[in-house]
Amino acid sequence: MTAPRPGGSRPRRPRASQRAGRTRNRGPLLILVPAGIGVAFLLVPLIALLVRAPWHGMGRLLSEAQVLTALRLSLECATAATIGSLALGVPLAWVLARSSFPGLGLLRALVTLPLILPPVVGGLALLLAFGRNGLLGRYLDHWFGLTLPFTTPGVIVAETFVAMPFLIVTVEGALRSADRDFEEAAATLGASRLTVFRRITLPMIGPSLVAGSVLCWARALGEFGATITFAGNYPGTTQTMPLAVYNALETDPQAAIALSLVLLLVAVIVLVGLRDRWLRAGSAP
Amino acid sequence: MHRRILAIGVCAAAAVMLVAGCSSSSKGSTGTTSTSTAASGGVTSSAPAVSGTVTVFAAASLQGTFTTLARQFETAHPGVTVKLNFGASSALALQINQGAPADVFASASARNMTQVTNAGGASPSTNFVKNAMEVAVPPSNPTHVTALADLAKPGVKIALCQAQVPCGATAAKVFTNAKLTVKAVTLEADVKSTLAKVELNEVDAGVVYVTDVKAAGSKVKGIEIPADVNASTAYPIAVLTKAPNSAAAQAFTAYVLSPEGQRVLAAAGFEKP
After folding, report:
1. What is the ipTM of this complex?
2. How far is it, in rounded angstroms, from Cα B245 to Cα A239?
3. What distance in Å separates residue A181's CA from the closest CA in chain B?
């Protein structure tokens, strides 16, 4: 309960400055004009998407088999990628937040590299690692007959690679700011380290865990570059929604707009669902 | 609070008008420059003294040859810079129709050229080469593909171009001619991506152009498709109506169609149209 309180007081501060700003409304025109241009710049493309949307044919466009297949594939893969990210990312976030060893900073930087790495580069790197001739991929193929490129698991791998850092960063931030007194108290009362993690740490970072998961899921849902590079593009197995949008643009632009609106809607739902929590957790680290 | 939102709204509206003003004025200026160059091009059409930059949008399969042609054209016309943009013909046609500032469009199929001419984006086009299909396999040829029919075997991983891309459409024609049902593992955005998947040994075979196999050298092995089932696509080239530098665009197009240009294309494996 201690964690949300300082955060909760944060929005109050700008409100006070707003009151002060009202008296000198003309002053910051130099700031307001570029700010207004910034707003327009970010919103006009989205408005254009809404204006040009084929509202009449929407039902027909979105109920086509190929669209539904792409949508189902996208939802399944993004969910699987989020589960994968939770399984690997939460322990990794704990290590980054709670342990100290030489090179920890470097490790943190490397682990979060996919956040800023162009996804196409990520896809190529995955191909060179897990492809049929890849560093590890050749053994997967040789020993188990497993090949990831051009398969649905390949899509999940690509999405996990790109989206997991979002979860790691969010959860690590929460672990750092969480009060450790409770954990120490539980430990002194004889709880094992696993029990402390399960009964104290996890519930304390719960909200951030949810926020990080949703963020991770949304990022995975929108993944394009790494997916098309590593997993290829085939309807039903690897063609997710963003790939379908890209394809449709060349054959049926109206369908591309309709598909884009679905992804826009998902993004808006995510944003509304996470309102203040996301921004705070995301900006903490 | 309300007043502030209002202020932001007003600013946003102002910004929209500002941006709109910018685009309309720039459109006006490019309009005048294009008409003036078109006029000068018309006057001096016999011996065009071309200059400036000419932007050429060309099919991915033309990457090697058009790079050579551009370099030779630049040498023949000092002061001219040729800017090349390669991609799937379908993607390039879309970009041109959306207003990309190109001078010349060289498409790998009549269909994508028609998309541009129908939209009023190009003058009538001329076919300058033809390209047939070939099967490409990695040098190690892991699944022992030796003939076109092997592509229909189960367990053979195949990369094709998407149906809307010329190489995908032409490959589909080959399969229809040969009465084969081929299931790909991936449908790539352009022919170079398809070839790359073969070069990287991530697929067992890909269907690409004869010229791609030739250009790839030892990185892939080519398996010829029998002439009676093979299909080819004709490449049209056109000067775009909104070409910012139409004089240079006409000169470049003429160069591609000239015996000199045709020699470069033939050396790469392209056939006469």
Report:
1. 0.70
2. 40
3. 40
